[in-house]
Amino acid sequence: MNTRMISHQELVYLQNRAAECERLEALVNNPQTDEFLGAVRAEMAHQVERWGEAHDRNKSAQNWFWLVGYLAGKALRAAITGDKPKALHHCVSSAAALGNWFKAVQADTSGCGAGEDKDIAPLADGGREGEEPEPLA
User: Are 67 and 136 in contact, with CB atoms under 8 Å apart?
Assistant: First the structure.
């Protein structure tokens, strides 16, 4: 293995890049509840980052519907129990799921949003063309 010492300038550069990476991750990977549309956009990016585009592209319209219902149900439960921050977050996550469903329908050549077009790679977890996606838990 070839190793070398890095200069102070290189160290500072790497530390700055790491700090910037942490800052950007913090923007995308935290619950958003302040400004609705901005929060929805950030949550949409977070959902794609967390689950991956291939995961979303394998969802049927029914999967999308149940995901939105599940997230809206979490907002309902939080509102009933008086957990306002969580209720706001789940309202945003529900809207973000709808936004990602919208993007899936736009991108799909069939218009159903279930990954019917052939330019999307199959799921890494073994999903295959023509197979019905697993139902959401």
Answer: yes
